[in-house]
Amino acid sequence: MDYYETSDQLLEPLLLCYDSLQSCGSGVLADGRLADLIRRVSTFGMVLMKLDLRQESGRHSEALDAITKYLDMGTYSEWDEEQKLDFLIKELKGKRPLVPPTIEVPPDVKEVLDTFKVAAELGSDSLGAYVISMASNASDVLAVELLQKDARLAVAGELGRPCPGGTLRVVPLFETVKDLREAGSVIRRLLSIDWYRDHVIKNHNGHQEVMVGYSDSGKDAGRFTAAWELYKAQEDVVAACNEYGIKITLFHGRGGSIGRGGGPTYLAIQSQPPGSVMGSLRSTEQGEMVQAKFGLPQMAVRQLEIYTTAVLLATLRPPQPPREQKWRNLMDDISNLSCRSYRSTVYENPEFLTYFHEATPQAELGFLNIGSRPTRRKSSGEIGQLRAIPWIFAWTQTRFVLPAWLGVGAGLKGVCDKGHTEDLRAMYREWPFFQSTVDLIEMVLGKADIPIAKHYDDVLVSESRRGLGAEMRRELVTTGNYVLQVTGHEKLSANNRSLRRLIESRLPYLNPMNILQVEILKRLRCDEDNHKLRDALLITINGIAAGMRNTG
User: Residues in the active site (predicted)?
Assistant: First the structure.
């Protein structure tokens, strides 16, 4: 054999050596480094860690458009959902390839098809899940299953033998509030299809994985509404899978910041809906949080202990659901008021977009090459096309952390003014989800700094738009007051003294960096090609990010 293709092939001679050493009385040697190597191969295989693939649902539709047009079948994306499902199921049940080898497609479509071809060549031994971002329909999942099946048929024909490993598990990612509300219905529709249900049982041990996105839902509707919609979506997805006897693993697409679902790991897992953590859970760790949580061996072990403990507890002793329907109704009221307030500022105020560009270093972030992806999905100046990471990162730099609290004050005020303050206090004491949501907002409010945010406005924002900044700063104060009413604390983060001490200990270093950043931004906007100013801005950005911690 010239090389090893699978873990079993590599294990065979290692185990032979192990048995040979044991049989001739050299157990000390066998149980040393050789045993360690056997354990590593058994645990990590040939690849150490499997990589996930991720692509937007629209790109798959474009690929199928090109194929159906080439075959004179019409335009796939123009069909309604039932037409798409009928076509996809028919092709999935068939044995012939769909994509002709002679087809010529645009570069974007070729990239998608080439990705499926590489995935077929590597198989599930090297790759984990295929995540569909912006998923909204059952056809989005079946489209990937079809493209995956077709690529495996083509590669098997080229190799003259079956493709290595099995098919990748396909994971829909529900991100926007609208898609989260439909997530349970989409999973029910998928599992009602005989072909798909049999495929999940046969190829994935009756296990469905569903990813929920915290970033775009927060940018879409505000943190409070996103948290509540995520909670309800998880309940509905779990119920859908239970109806069909399918096991579920929820994959949480969290970021480091509170606005993107970040926060203490243990608290986050313990506040999930009952039944959503049944012995398994996936979660992303992004940006500086990877270094912060896993940068040193002892810290990495500690984080794994926290994950393991929280998952075991949530499985064996699930957190309490809302005690009564009234609590759910109150959450709906807070969510609706909060979302309305948030969107009226961010999406409906014509001055907001310009204010955002002036008051934050968002525009400059794109020039600094400090992110893994472009700051925008498309070349549009709208908030909707801005990725969630720069959206939150920019506000964190100014210490205003607006995405994590905007709208929350309006929601709490509306419900408290109707005489439900005591109900909210009872929810805070007895419902882990509500308590963790409010505690995280309180933590962010403790990190916000009104005088620093005002300084950015005074120096960088046009005079005609400073009133908007002043209005939002008043909203920040209102939010803090109503959070304190609900928690019963005398001041923000009163229940977390170590956090307060940490924040206060960083202020002598953070405040000068913010003052410097304001001055650098002012000069850089008059001299955009000045590389020394860009370097200086990057230093302040890194310094403020380190001081604020959960920023991305």
Answer: 219
